[in-house]
């Protein structure tokens, strides 16, 4: 479903010259699977997800999403994905209904199908009260619900969640996580980035721990726990990051 | 590009803007309430100024003649003023201690020249200060001093001694508007009274009073009321429409780009199937709509208020007639508004796309206004008229065309309709392309991740040196050259050019300090390979010869272009004087070789090092040789003082740029440049006898008006064909080395650009 190979992204930075945000990462994510990208701030998670959602172009390497290459067919990929970013990213001066409908229309959905789909989503997420409420008057939790509804309105096979629970209270965060689990159960391929270990432990089938633009370790949580002999995922995370710091550090590939 | 997506984005943006109170206030509410409020304020102020009473302090009122009497019963006589205004002029009589002013005024004011030999003397100034103080203490607006008795009109003994002229002093304080208005009001009254006094005196001496009229001069305005009104509105309305269409475009543009970046919705939109170009055009159409709406609402509100206010005010501004703007004017404005709004909206949107936040976006409005303002003000100048030259200036040409249409000069407007439309269309197209480019550029869209620090930037300049300069270095060098040339040129303008030595000194100073120094210093300090940067490698002999021959063959065409430019934009001032001075200076040169050295060789070498050396090398980082050549040529043109010279120089710059890029050496460029400059000098200085004695020269150059030589049409065409052939040969040359190493391009440029397929509109 998602195949990432030697993906690299560099920028020109005033202080450090060429700055590498992603340094040749590779991973695969399958349908029905939740793939977790784990890492501290500046590890390169958002850059990787922006490339997968075709907002950014890679400097080198490839990423194939549902059979389409990010370099060759970015337009086709956009029809295959739903992207939820860390900030709720919804239009303040639109109602929930207008906003979801707008994105459905951008995805060129048939009017009847869109109507049915929206009715279903609003029912499932218990958003009928929000239909005619301007987004500016919503709480953060409500906004995140609308944001997810917007991302799934066209029923994409791939969903990308970039720190989707960041800034949410524990109740709303749990609700979001439950929704993600349900979507995975429907056979969607989900990429989920976070720096909250417990969330990842609960949700993800496979994880990749990233730091300074590189994947330090990758596999199922069980494999990684076995590899490092550490049961607590937070401790495991610290250990992986610490070991990588000890090994080597190129000054030119400082964090994002 | 799918128009259904564009329409979808456009409708959403429109709805969004209609729900934004700030935008609605700027676009709709402000124009609707601003002008009526301004009109009301003007009426109030005018009313206040008219109705406010004026206090006048009269010193020496007893010295006034009894007939005709200026003052009756402590008030201005009704003979000179209406009853209403009489009540508004309140007189204060003089006290006993006021007599001291008589002596002071007699001494310092009546005959100041006799006192010190100067009009402004300390004594006179002292009296002024004293009176100002007295006027403030007495709370009066004016002081009238009559130092000497003025006799009643009587018969004069023409054979007797000549009587001194009677004087009245009116003191006012120009720093206070109330005092100035009072002085104007009193001046009218005093003039009427003086006129009656003179008439009476003439009557007493048996001279017919009509003699003082002399010859009566009557003026008449043949313009009809509508014409006068159109003339007035034709100046005001286009300006108002331009300013408001830019302002109306800017605020929605900021909200649609920078605002969206701030809210984080931009990323969501970019990950949707809508293409960058569709998003850009959808947003652009929204901005255009708001720009037009703002301009229209302002125009109608201003016209309506203007009509109402000016009909209430007696004489209008400056005595001009201000009726309602003719319907035709408004119609033409609406038609012209479409391209104006499109242009300003595209520029505003591109600038707003660059901004990281709404706050940063606001900062771009002032520079944008400052750049646009001269283009908007040029057409308002009384001397500005629609001709080929002005019609080719963006914005100004359109405004002048609009003025012609409003004034009803349709024949003139039709004549320049095509050039104005062409220029406006090109500008709109370029601006729209710029918007799409901005939306395709990752560096523009995700600038939020950057942190700019001056110290880091300076450090990076020195730490991140490459063998050739960066794009930023090239721009910096251009700006340094333009600024230095401006200051050195301005300083040199004060020096009188008397001899060839003066000319040499100034020319070399400008070239060495203004052009060579910045490019050489930057090449040495900011690059690791100055030799490569300045393209100092040698060229083959065929290339050198080809450059020289091409310069000779292109010269007639370029001279024809110069004549054309001179016809379109005739030089201001008397060129014959300049020509005379030029001959004198050249006459003092030690020989023609010296003139060639200073005027042809030195500029060629130095300008090539700067423009085809350092600057073009930097621009070649764009990876598009044509863009690089055009940019370098543009700056090469701008570095020349006069617009006429700049246009032709930019064309020469393109030819030189091609040679430099194709041969990777500035030696053939220098050869071309020296040849071109030398031929120009020779053509301007060649003796007629030399031409007459040479049959070959007679076929190439001729003197149609006996004033200087120019190329014959045959020679121009034939030589241009040969030059084009040589140019084709240059273009076929294999470029010897890439502009930048492939790896470097991959690192620096590839990561900020989308694939052509994606960036296509």
Describe this structure in words.
- The complex is a heterodimer of chains A (256) and B (761).
- Chain A has helices at 45-52, 74-80, 96-106, 111-124, 140-152, 170-185, 197-203, 221-228, 233-247; strands at residues 2-13, 17-29, 34-38, 60-65, 68-69, 81-84, 158-162, 189-194, 206-211, 214-220.
- With 256 residues, chain A is an alpha/beta fold.
- Chain A has a single domain, classed as 3-Layer(aba) Sandwich (Rossmann fold).
- In chain A, helix 6 (170-185) links the parallel strand 7 (158-162) and strand 8.
- In chain A, helix 3 (96-106) runs parallel beside helix 5 and helix 8 (221-228) packs across helix 9.
- The two termini of chain A are 27 Å apart.
- Chain B has 3 domains: 3-44 and 222-380 and 431-447, no CATH class; 52-213, no CATH class; 451-742, no CATH class.
- Chain B has a 4-stranded mixed beta sheet with strand order 4-1-5-6, sandwiched between helices. In chain B, strands 2-3 form a two-stranded antiparallel ribbon.
- The longest helix of chain B has 39 residues, at 225-263.
- In chain B, 34% of the residues are buried.
> Count of DSSP helices of chain B?
33
Average pLDDT of chain B works out at 81
Strand content of chain A: 25-35%
Domain count of chain B: the total is: 3
Which consecutive residue ranges of chain A, at least 5 long each, have pLDDT under 50?
252-256
Task: Sum up the overall morphology of chain B in one term.
Answer: globular
* Span between termini of chain B: 7 Å
Helix content of chain A: 25-40%
Short description:
The complex is a heterodimer of chains A (256) and B (761). With 256 residues, chain A is of the alpha/beta class.
Offer a few descriptive terms.
heterodimer; A: 256 residues; alpha/beta; Rossmann fold; six-stranded mixed beta sheet; four-stranded antiparallel beta sheet; 10 strands; 39% helix; globular; B: 761 residues; mainly alpha; 3 domains; four-stranded mixed beta sheet; two-stranded antiparallel ribbon; 33 helices; 69% helix; 3% strand
């Amino acid at each position: 479903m998602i195949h990432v190979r030697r993906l690299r992204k560099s920028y020109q930075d005033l202080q450090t010259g060429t700055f590498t945000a992603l340094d040749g990462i590779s991973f695969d994510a399958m349908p029905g699977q939740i793939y977790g990208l784990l890492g501290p701030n500046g590890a390169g998670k958002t850059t990787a997800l922006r490339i997968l959602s075709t907002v950014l172009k890679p400097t080198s390497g490839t990423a194939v999403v549902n059979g389409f290459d990010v370099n060759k067919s970015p337009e086709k990929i956009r029809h295959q994905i739903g992207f939820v970013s860390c900030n709720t990213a919804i239009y303040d001066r639109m109602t929930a209904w207008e906003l979801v409908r707008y994105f459905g229309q951008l995805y060129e959905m048939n009017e009847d199908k869109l109507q049915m789909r929206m009715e279903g989503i609003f029912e499932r997420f218990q958003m009928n009260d929000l239909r005619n409420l301007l987004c500016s008057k919503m709480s953060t939790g409500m906004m995140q619900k609308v944001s997810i509804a917007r991302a799934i309105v066209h029923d994409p096979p791939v969903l990308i969640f970039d720190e989707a629970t960041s800034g949410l209270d524990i109740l709303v965060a749990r609700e979001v996580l439950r929704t993600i689990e349900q979507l995975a159960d429907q056979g969607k391929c989900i990429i989920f980035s976070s720096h909250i270990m417990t969330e990842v432990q609960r949700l993800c089938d496979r994880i990749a721990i990233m730091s300074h633009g590189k994947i330090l370790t990758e596999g199922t949580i069980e494999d990684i726990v076995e590899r490092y002999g550490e049961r607590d995922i937070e401790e495991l995370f610290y250990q992986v990051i610490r070991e990588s710091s000890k090994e080597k550090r190129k000054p030119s590939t400082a964090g994002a | 590009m799918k128009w259904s997506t564009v329409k979808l984005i456009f409708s959403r943006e429109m709805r969004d803007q209609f729900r934004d109170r700030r935008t609605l206030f700027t676009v709709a509410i402000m124009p609707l309430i601003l002008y009526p409020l301004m009109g009301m304020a003007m009426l109030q102020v005018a009313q206040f100024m008219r109705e406010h009473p004026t206090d006048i302090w009269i010193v020496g009122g007893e010295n006034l003649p009894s007939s005709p009497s200026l003052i009756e019963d402590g008030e201005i006589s009704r003979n000179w003023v209406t009853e209403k205004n009489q009540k508004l002029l309140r007189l204060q009589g003089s006290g006993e201690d006021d007599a001291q002013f008589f002596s002071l005024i007699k001494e310092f004011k009546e005959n100041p020249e006799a006192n010190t030999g100067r009009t402004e003397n300390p004594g006179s100034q002292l009296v002024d200060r004293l009176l100002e103080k007295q006027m403030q203490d007495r709370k009066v607006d004016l002081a009238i001093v009559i130092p000497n008795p003025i006799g009643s009109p009587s018969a004069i003994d023409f054979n007797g001694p000549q009587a001194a002229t009677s004087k009245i002093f009116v003191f006012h304080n120009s720093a206070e508007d109330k005092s100035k208005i009072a002085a104007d009001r009193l001046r009218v009254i005093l003039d009427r009274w003086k006129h009656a006094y003179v008439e009476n005196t003439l009557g007493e001496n048996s001279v017919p009073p009509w003699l003082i009229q002399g010859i009566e001069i009557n003026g008449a305005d043949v313009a009809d009321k509508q014409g006068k009104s159109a003339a007035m509105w034709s100046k005001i309305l286009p300006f108002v429409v331009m300013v408001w269409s830019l302002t109306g475009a800017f605020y929605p543009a900021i909200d649609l780009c920078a605002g969206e970046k701030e809210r984080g919705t931009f990323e969501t939109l970019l990950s949707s199937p809508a293409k960058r170009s569709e998003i850009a055009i959808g947003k652009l159409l929204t901005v255009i709509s708001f720009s037009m709406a703002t301009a229209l609402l302002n125009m109608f509100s201003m016209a309506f208020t203007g009509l109402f206010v000016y009909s209430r005010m007696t004489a209008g501004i400056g005595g001009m007639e201000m009726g309602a703007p003719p319907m035709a004017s408004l119609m033409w404005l609406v038609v012209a508004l479409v391209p104006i709004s499109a242009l300003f909206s595209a520029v505003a949107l591109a600038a707003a796309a660059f901004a990281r936040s709404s706050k940063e976006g606001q900062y771009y409005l002032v520079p944008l206004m400052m750049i646009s303002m001269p283009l908007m003000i040029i057409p308002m100048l009384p001397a500005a008229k629609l001709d080929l030259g002005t019609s080719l200036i963006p914005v100004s040409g359109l405004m002048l065309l609009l003025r012609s249409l409003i004034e009803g000069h349709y024949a003139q407007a039709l004549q320049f309709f095509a050039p104005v439309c062409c220029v406006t269309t090109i500008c709109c197209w370029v601006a729209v392309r710029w918007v799409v480019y901005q939306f395709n550029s990752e560096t523009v869209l995700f600038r939020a991740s950057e942190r700019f620090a001056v110290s880091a930037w300076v450090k990076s300049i020195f730490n991140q040196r490459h063998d050739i300069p960066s794009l930023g270095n090239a721009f910096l060098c251009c700006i340094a050259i333009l600024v230095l040339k401006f200051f050195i040129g301005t300083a040199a303008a004060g020096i009188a050019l008397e001899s060839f030595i003066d000319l040499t000194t100034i020319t070399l100073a400008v070239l060495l300090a203004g052009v060579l120094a910045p490019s050489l210093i930057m090449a040495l300090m900011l690059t690791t390979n100055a030799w490569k940067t300045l393209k100092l490698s040698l060229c083959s002999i065929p290339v050198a010869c080809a450059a020289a021959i091409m310069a000779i063959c292109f010269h007639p065409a370029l001279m024809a272009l110069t004549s054309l430019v001179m016809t379109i934009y005739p030089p201001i001032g008397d060129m014959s004087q300049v020509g005379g001075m030029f001959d004198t200076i050249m006459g003092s040169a030690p020989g023609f070789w010296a003139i060639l050295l200073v005027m042809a060789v030195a500029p060629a070498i130095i300008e090539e090092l700067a423009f085809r050396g350092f600057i073009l090398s930097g621009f070649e980082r764009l990876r598009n040789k044509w863009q690089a050549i055009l940019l370098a040529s543009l700056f090469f043109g701008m570095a020349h003082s006069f617009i006429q010279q700049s246009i032709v120089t930019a064309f020469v710059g393109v030819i030189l740029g091609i040679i430099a890029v194709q041969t990777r050496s500035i030696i053939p460029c220098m050869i071309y440049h020296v040849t071109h400059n030398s031929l120009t000098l020779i053509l301007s200085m060649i003796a007629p006898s030399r031409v007459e004695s040479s049959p070959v020269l007679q076929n190439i150059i001729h003197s149609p008006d006996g004033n200087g030589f120019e190329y014959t049409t045959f020679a121009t065409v034939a030589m241009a064909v040969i030059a084009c052939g040589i140019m084709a040969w240059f273009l076929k040359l294999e470029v010897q080395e890439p502009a930048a190493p492939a790896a470097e391009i991959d690192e620096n440029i590839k990561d900020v650009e989308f694939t052509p397929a994606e960036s296509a509109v």
